[in-house]
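<discrete_fold_record>
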Amino acid sequence: MLFEIPKDITDYLSELDDFIEREIKPLERVDDNIRFFDHRREWARTDWDNDGLPRHDWEELLSHMRRIADAAGHYRFALPSEYGGKDGSHLAMACIREHLAAKGLGLHNDLQNESSIVGNLVQPLMVRDFGTETQKAEYIPAMLEGRMRWTFGLTEEHHGSDATWMDTRAVRETRDGVDGWLINGNKMWTTGSHVATHCMVFARHSGKDGDARGIGCFLVPQDSPGFEVGEYLWTFNMPTDHPKVSLTNVWIPGDMVLGDAEMGLACAQHFVHENRIRQAASSLGAAQYCINEAVKYARERTPFGKPLAVNQAIQFPLVELHTEAAMLRQLIYATSAKMDTMPKPEIAKRLSDVISMCNYRANRLVCDAADRAMQVHGGIGYSRHKPFEHIYRHHRRYRITEGAEEIQMRKVAGHLFGFMGRD
């Protein structure tokens, strides 16, 4: 039996469609803003003479879009009503992410920047769940108003997937009668550092390498003495906002720690399942877009006097992709709906492996679908006049970020072979 999407969600998708046509598409078309989405997109977005950073006019357009979406009541959809949101469910967010990505490139949903008319706003919820009352009162409004922006400093140059091994160290130090922490180390892939105010720096202060305990989540102002933003790493999909960061004798007061200083990795894991299922939904939507466009072109293109679509060499690969998309859709929806029935600890215990299945398969699918769409379209598919190369370059990173697909598969295997116990 097919999973049925509740009517309130399908009605909301229609509401978003109307909003896009009425408010977002006109903005996309004025002042040659379409340059950010047509064949000029990488050039238009990238300041090649400034470390490959995003151009200011590109980021200002995204900010303008978010302000419009926020004023219309869409941007904070997933947040609790106490923060101006609509208490959006996991299922609703999965449906929205797929629906918007399936529309193709546009100002309504540009995943290169994780920017959308419906925001994936995880950091305010981190503060809600781990912050002190003072931190909640100060940080959450500042985040939602754009006055406070955090980067995520977990990965290091010499340490990747295993976050329990890191070179960055924190030691207690009192200055002028104020208890605090002195931090030394390095981070990389600290995305958004060019506009951030703070970096969530994960650093070990006790225990030994490999221990989950003894790592804190320290909120470091980026203007702190000794905090340096270094080389911006140019990537497969430009522009870049992913630099290396170094910390040399950086001191912060003791109240700039988020959550239990012994269990900082709990902050890092706080949103992993939500992000992975939503990312899977986005990849599914982009894959379906590529499949649909390839089918449409194959029906229209008539080499040798007949449509491409009559050739089984064209049909069968697209049938395989379309079938996998249909199966993934059911798993993603059913898993998202199940997530809505349990708290975070239960999700981590009972659904983590299924979420990983959704994530790594959907991220592979979109790469395969974009590649097949290029092949069906021929030369024009390889060009930047079609969006498939952009979709491929963007979604290819998801096979590495949010936990590499090998990490996801290892998690599935751990449950499958009994290495991870279940009640």
Observations:
- The longest helix spans residues 272-300.
- The mean pLDDT is 95.
